[in-house]
Amino acid sequence: MSIWHTPLDLPALTAACAGSMPGFLGIEFVDAGDDWLRARMPVDQRTRQPYGRLHGGASVALAETVASVAAMATVDPARFAAVGMEINANHLRPVGDGFVHATAISEARGRTSQVWTIRITDDADRLVCIARMTAAVIAVDRGALG
After folding, report:
1. Using 50, 70 and 90 to split pLDDT, how confident is the model at 143?
2. Which helix (H) or strand (E) holds 61?
3. 92, 55, 80, 57: which is closest to 140 by C-alpha?
4. pLDDT at 146 over 90
5. Is the pLDDT of residue 109 over 80?
6. How sure is the predictor about 141, in pLDDT bands with cuts at 50, 70 and 90?
7. Bridge-based pairing state of the strands 99-109 and 36-42
8. What's CA 116's distance to the chain center, in Å?
9. Burial of 118 (0-12, 13-18, 19+ CB in 10 A)
10. If I label 6, which of 37, 72, 81, 145 is the partner at 20 to 30 A Cα–Cα?
11. What is d(CA 91, CA 49) in angstroms, rounded to the nearest whole number?
12. What's the whole-number mean pLDDT along residues 65-74?
């Protein structure tokens, strides 16, 4: 059974991020299942550190992007927002080029918080980073978005 509030439109999710950090980093939403969402990000001049390897901060930005968008897609946006509250990441393998692929999987979805695990792999499907993000679910009418 799907956890999504409405069916996911991956091109629309990508377009919605175009003018903010995910768009600047080249993040695209590419696939989804009943309880997971996948995005990819290029490893290029925008996302590498000065020594030619994927920047850990770019990995965390990718992880938080895919998990935050996934969390938001599980709630009624007219009533609630889901926002990142905490994230941690373990960087396991360097990447110098190609793409990295992040899959956010729902671990727990409660009334006020959600927990997502994000696995980031390289083009050869080797684990690059594993992260966990907690999202707060807040009521829109409480003024928490202003």
Report:
1. low
2. helix 56-72
3. 80
4. no
5. yes
6. confident
7. antiparallel
8. 9
9. buried
10. 145
11. 14
12. 98
Cα–Cα distances (Å) from 93 to 59, 78, 84, 119, in that order, read: 11, 40, 25, 12
Q: How crowded is the C-beta side of 27, counted as CA atoms within 13 Å? A: 32
Catalytic residue among 28, 64, 86, 107: 64
pTM of the model: 0.94
Calculate ∠ Cα 52-58-60, nearest 5°: 135
Q: Residue 37 has what pLDDT?
A: 98
- Tokens describing residue 131: 């992260």
Annotation marks residue 107 as catalytic: no
Other beta carbons less than 10 A from residue 68's beta carbon: 21
Is the pLDDT at 144 greater than 60? The verdict is: no
- In the beta sheet, which residues pair with residue 102? 39, 120
